[in-house]
Amino acid sequence: MLKATIKSMRLRTLPLSLSGIIVGMTLGLKTEEPSLDGVDRGLIALFLVLTTICLQVVSNMSNELGDTLHATDSDDRQGIHYSLQDGDMTIGQLKRLIGVFVWHSCVFGAWMIFFSFGTLLSAGAITFLLLGAVAIWAAMHYTLGKNPYGYRGLGDISVFVFFGLATTFGGYYLCSHDFSNIFIWLLASAIGCFSVAVLNVNNIRDMKSDARTRTTVAIKLGGYRARMYQTFLIALGWLLMIAYTTATFTSWTNWIYVVTLPLFIVHLKGVWTRTDHELDPMLPLLVISTFITSVLFTIGILC
């Protein structure tokens, strides 16, 4: 059961969800906000990470359950097979696991908000509690329910909002209580573009099997234009990162993250030259590339 649980958690996706959090909370921790004097912002950061991981697992397990119930995960699926498809876990067991991680998301999220605002009853705290509830709903209903939004080509928008804007700016604000840094939205959008690109390469890989039960942006665009879209997302993400660094330049160390650019070029080359299951390695490559870029970016602004 433990092995099946770990398989359904899809650990290779976790670095992506942490990328925006790392960038946002690092910038947030650097600010000097009087309202946070005496607050242990290390605890805010800890529960930010725990909440993000749990939400990602909820999303992954709900995706597996939804795809199984809608018969999307068939034997000819090009990607990795997970626990339900391989018969390592029952639907009932997976539903209980989803419930466990939803509960942990709520608990960790409540502590995160409490440490940031000192209460759960202020306007800011209530706002983030509501946003957390929306995030849980979105994580579960990407493929679950009678009319999941992920089956209607709306997954790209959701990923951009929750993996880019929400994680980056949310992490920043919880650690800083600052609305004045308008440039943070450039970084949030960059992480959002890279995150959508991860979803898109997944959808390009699975176009044939997905076409029977769902609609994705890749299916709407077709193979060639979906790859053009992938190139656009990566290029735009980099342009936004460069725009932020140019606008907020303080030291040449701010540019250290550009050493990861060749990884993205290798990724795009693979996307343009591979098809079906051969595309699968391009997914973790982009996840790790985004994560390393985020880590190096934070190192560059801290040095």
Helical fraction: over 70%
Mean pLDDT: 90
Strand-pairing-aware structural class: mainly alpha
Given as residue ranges, the uncertain stretches (5+ residues, pLDDT < 50) are: none
Rg over C-alpha atoms, rounded to the nearest angstrom = 19 Å
Number of helices: 13
Order of SSEs: HHHHHHHHHHHHH
Estimate what percentage of residues fall within beta strands: under 5%
The separation of the N and C termini measures 44 Å
Shape: globular
Largest sheet composition = none
Give the tally of β-strands.
Answer: 0
Explain this structure to me?
The chain is mainly alpha-helical and 303 residues long. The chain contains 13 helices and no strands. The radius of gyration is 19 Å and the shape is globular.
Short description:
With 303 residues, this protein is mainly α. It has helices at 2-9, 14-30, 41-69, 83-86, 91-117, 123-140, 155-176, 184-205, 207-210, 217-221, 223-247, 261-273, 282-302.
What brief labels describe this structure?
mainly alpha; 13 helices
Fold blueprint:
Elements: H1 2-9, H2 14-30, H3 41-69, H4 83-86, H5 91-117, H6 123-140, H7 155-176, H8 184-205, H9 207-210, H10 217-221, H11 223-247, H12 261-273, H13 282-302
Helix pairs in contact: 2-3, 2-7, 2-8, 2-13, 3-5, 3-6, 3-7, 5-6, 7-8, 8-11, 8-13, 11-12, 12-13
